[in-house]
Amino acid sequence: MNRWSSIQKCTNKFCAFLAQVESLHPSGATEQDKIEKAKLLYKEMEKSNFTMEHCWCLLRHQPKWQQHISTLGTRRRPQGEAAIDTMEENMEVFTERPLGKKTEKEKERKRKSMEDKESKISISLAKMTEDRATTMEERRHAALKADQRSEKIFELKKKKFELEKKKFECKMMMLDLRGMNAMQVEYFRNIQLAIFEDSKFHSGDRSNSPSTPYYVDI
C-alpha cells in the first residue's frame, strides 16, 4: 500500500467517525469539540490514534475531497448507523450546561468574596479595638505616673515650706527685741504671739493659751 492509500484509508475512517459525531447534533459543542470526539471514537474503534490530522486539515476544504466524502458517506450509511450505537455507548455525550449554573457560580464567588472582606474588616476592627484599648491603658498608666510624680513634688515642696516656716519661726522667737523702738517691739511681739498660739494649736493644747500676750523681756 502506497503512502496516499494509507492517508486516504485513515482519513476516510476519520471522516466517517466525524460524520457520526455530527449526526448526533451535540448541543453546545464547537467544531473542535466534535473533532476531538471523532478522534476518541477513531481510537476506540481502530485501537490506534488518528495520526493524519494534518493531512485531513489540508484535504477537508478541497472540493474534490468533499465530493469524495459525500459519496463515501452515502455508500457506508448502513454501517454508520450501527457505529453510532457503539459510539453512544463508548463516548461522552455532550450535555448543555444547566440554566443558571454560571449565575450560581458567580453568586457563590461574590458570596465568598464578601465573606473574605467581612472577615478582613472584623479582624481590622478587632485590631483597632485592641490597639485603642492598649493606647488607653498606656495613657491611664502615664497619667497615674504623672499624678504620682506631681504628688511627690507637692510633698517635697510642702516639706520644704514647713522647714522654711520652722526656720522662720525659730528666728522670730529667738529675735532680740532690745534696742528696738516701741512700734517694732509691738510688731515682733505680735508675730511671736501668733507663732506661739499656732504651736499650741497644732500640739492640741488650747487650754493653756495665755490670757495675756507673751512679751519678751527687753
Automatic annotation (TrEMBL):
Name the UniProt record assigns to this protein: No apical meristem-associated C-terminal domain-containing protein
Origin species: Juglans regia
Stretches for region Disordered: 98-121
No apical meristem-associated C-terminal domain residues: 50-192
InterPro entries xrefs: NAM-associated_C (IPR029466)
Segments of skewed composition (Basic and acidic residues): 98-120
Pfam families documented for this protein: NAM-associated
